[in-house]
Design goal:
642 residues, mainly beta, nine-stranded mixed beta sheet, four-stranded antiparallel beta sheet, 3 helices, 47 strands, elongated
Length: 642
Amino acid sequence: MPSPVITFDGIGNIDGYVPGDPNGDVGPNYYVQMVNMQIAVFDKSSGAFVLGPESISTLWSGFGGSCETTNNGDPIVLYDSLADRWFVSQLAMASDYGPFYQCVAISTSPDPTGSYYRYAFLMSSGEFNDYPKFGVWPGAYLMTVNQFSDATQSGIWEGAGVWALDRAQMLAGVPSATTVYFDLNSVNTNFGSILPADVDGSTPPPAGSPGYFAEVDNSTSIGPVDALRLWQLRVDWTNPQNATLGNSGQPNTVLNVAPFNYLPCVNLGAFNCIPQPIVPSSEYLDAVGDRLMHRLAYRNFGDHESLVMNHTVDAGTDNSGNPIAGVRWYEVRDPGGTPNLYQQGTYNPDSTSRWMASIAMDHAGNIAMGYSASSTSVYPSVRYTGRLATDRLGQMARGEGTIVNGLGSQESSYDRWGDYSAIAVDPVDDCTFWYTNQYYVAMSNNAWHTRIGSFRFPSCSLNSLSGAVTDAATGAPLAGALVTAINATDPPTTTWTDPSGVFTFTLSTFGAYTVTAQSSGYAPGSVSGIALTSVAPSAVANIALTRIPFYSVSGVLRDIVSGAPLSGTVDISGSPLDPPVTNTLTDASGYYSVTLAGSQTYTLTASALFHRAQSYTVNSLSSDLQEDFQLWRELWLLPIYR
């Protein structure tokens, strides 16, 4: 794997809270990180703090209620690349027995240090909304929770809950945004730890796509075989009561996967699975090995859609009989049509455990995973691996990179390490991965640190759309032509041809493009249906322009009172394609003349010494034109008699 581009320390354990639950996301200028009870904003180019760390509840200062007065954790931050906004959430409760809330804040601008629209959604009066996970989707913010009868360790399991929050209303700051809720406990009480899909990249899902959700199950929890379960959610916010999830709550699709086993301690309902140096086995770490790990990353490549996901599995034992954890990962394609398990694999290259992973894809189809790594001789560290789209299916073939090596173990019989970590893809180049997780700088009970790092595959680049603009009659290159690339989803992108008539666009979105070209003295031209895909990320669009006629514009400048000719200038401004003609001088008879391209609009402004300027607009020049100017003498320059 390539070395990190940048790494820097994130938020530490300011509040003495375990687990840390580090997660974060990246935007055009900032990296925003959250841990249990704290949030911070970093300059992504330097790693410097821009805001915080500060208590998450400060986002709800003055809002009132439990969101302002408590920090109950399980935080999630997401960058909504489709709206250039930030999504921040944590849960809140009035007491261990409710009522229970989900606090959600949406930035009012692209600036995560600015103001937010704030919400406190009442989840339940009696069921605790544990382990909330979110995904950005065009029609909704998707949400899942694990439900318990209360928030104590003795809380009774009440199954999975699935929510949709009206994204359009929340982006607009509508105070009482609409929600839709599905209680899956009555469908199958074994459903749980479901993940919602979260969009990566600037290309949204196809119009009308449902929201996607996924869960992994070992045959010991839901039989008869190990499988992925996929749901589709459809909601019309005009009639939210008609929303549907799956087939009456059952998954739309069940995909059998390669057999896997949970780690032994997971089967026993215990936590201490992951070995670490020096400490006794009673202080080994929690694997959270019974569920998919944050995020369920979605990407639309134009020619196909993909979901990638991962979870922790039993990868055998080391020479001392200690368990080894590995990361099982999947890519599912065509989730809205006939979902198929395109590839799967388990990453465990040696006797070091790897767990607490997060997975995503760049726009070229390369996959990267970040995770924790630990063994009896390796302190818990932050590492990553990946594969190129051209590698053999099912293989993380690019080796391993390190964001930070741990220098200590967690010395505590409270074995919680974290419930999740997070990998994200930089929206600027759609290639750079950003990952955050936790580690220790020394032996300690709970003084964990976090680290943030970025890396990218050198072969990943933005899509290239290039070509040449030429004269249709002679084939001569046209320098300085204005070229525009347009697709169905993004704002138009413009550039200019170089002295050889060549243009190049670097684009982040797959899809079909129309390219138009304009040049002074030529009729506009265009080429449509230029396709950029993950298979063919580069394309050429050559455009030949037809010359249009030129016309003469001339006239005389005179004094309006005396009719005498004036020595002066005529300035002519036109479209961006036609550089302005300035200081066109008149001769001794006040005469001026200039040749201009037809079919353009021009503004002519005549000026002469001691006279007021006068302007005239020519709309779509189509013939030779004579335009005379009669200028008034400035009154303040007239003689004053006493």
